[in-house]
Amino acid sequence: MTFERYMCRAEKVYNQTPSFRIGQAYSNVLNEVQPKLAASIVYTNCDPFYQNDKLSTFLVVVSHFWGQTPTRQEVENYLKEIC
Fold this sequence. Notes:
Blueprint: H1 3-16, H2 22-33, H3 35-41, H4 55-65, H5 72-82
Helix pairs in contact: 1-2, 2-3
């Protein structure tokens, strides 16, 4: 799956599941399609599951690491570079 298709799928899940917050929808779909990448982002400063305001940073990180399996430390280091 491409990053663009992931974005479309996450938006579709969000629109079809009114009980989901937007960050929750994007996190859940990432966990389905790239669970190792999702795991490296959980509980970082860009995890949008509970805080929608982190979604834009989350998407920058996800697009940067798409198709990779970074460690949490690699994600944290990248966050320091971009923030």
